Amino acid sequence: MRGKSVLLIIGGGIAAYKSLDLIRRLVERGVKTRAILTRAGAEFVTPLSVAALTAEKVYSDLFSLTDESEMGHIELSRAADLVVVAPATADLMGKLAAGLASDLASTALLATDKRILMAPAMNVRMWQSPSVRRSADILARDGVLFVGPNDGEMACGEFGPGRMAEPLEIVTAIEKALAIPGSALNGFKALVTAGPTQEPLDPVRFLGNRSSGKQGYAIADALASAGADTVLISGPVEIAAPSHVKLVRVTTAREMLAACEAELPADIAVMSAAVADWRPEFAMNSKIKKEAGHAAPVVRLVENPDILAELAHHQKRPRLVVGFAAETDDVLSHATAKRSRKGADWIVANDVSTNGKGETVMGGERNQVHLITATKQESWPEMAKADVARRLVQHITQHFQDTAS
Prior knowledge:
Layout: E1 5-10, H1 16-28, E2 32-37, H2 47-54, E3 58-59, H3 65-70, H4 73-78, E4 82-88, H5 90-98, H6 104-111, E5 115-120, H7 124-128, H8 130-141, E6 145-146, E7 150-153, E8 159-163, H9 167-177, E9 189-194, E10 199-202, E11 205-207, H10 214-225, E12 229-234, E13 246-249, H11 253-262, E14 268-271, E15 278-280, E16 301-303, H12 307-312, E17 320-327, H13 331-342, E18 346-351, E19 366-367, E20 369-372, E21 377-379, E22 383-384, H14 385-404
Parallel strand pairs: 1-2, 1-4, 2-3, 4-5, 5-6, 9-12, 9-14, 12-13, 14-17, 17-18
Antiparallel strand pairs: 7-8, 10-11, 15-16, 18-20, 19-22, 20-21
């Protein structure tokens, strides 16, 4: 993103403090950032702190003669490559949806000819209210981009959707919005598996795991953003798929394998799904009841198909097969053996045991991985899963550039 510019509009809300970190992240990436600080936003962060991080004048007054003579609000709204609203309050969303311009921020939003990215932040009840949902629907139809909101605990003590996306998530969304079509993976077809599989025991129970699918979804997003024609084959998850990928939903390991084979041939296969190794030999047609005086039922397990190995040895084998190894001990040695045993070109290994704080990689926002190939091992620092995805796609792109030269 070096050389790009962003106009950041900081709305009023406790999440405004995250906007300072967002500015810092953008500056690190060489993005020139100008800021409009609303009157309500200035109740949470100061113009001085914003100016210190952007190294630019902070704008706030629509009727400032000085600001209008130096850079009018029309020019301010159009000089950037992207307009970002973080936090995007219900007030700012409502004004833009209704076409209202009562201050500098809302006027700039109406006057811009650039894309707008909003990071909503508000109380869960506000976010779920019919009027805010209506505003969000109108803005989405008008082409406004959104990142978040996330689920979590609010400053007011309530829990649910409404937390502003984290700064690195917003940076990822900005990178997508600024992406230039025609990248190195144009013409490539990529296949990505993500999430868990669920193996039914009876109509209400299944064998599964804690995989959230976040890492696989981020990889599919990064591959598609790099120009690849991307198919995402996903087990049951609670997150939305990237808009620019083909999504195929499955439940069991056997369904996932069949969906993968149906999408061959492909150039790239990234098998990040946490596939259940075993399934019940028989799934009952009715719920297994617990009855007093009766012993617990015996469940016989049979092995599921090995999707990574199947694709690595398939007649239509992708040119690059990347597997994932979720380990809890001896991560590198187990992952190295897995790469050889399964026939994968690369293995991305990570430690999914708890970190001492009761947190695990599965379901979290961050990951620390090791990339293992036939010739080398790379240990990457802990980073956001979106950053892991982008870094992996950079290696994939470089691989094909090297093999073509």
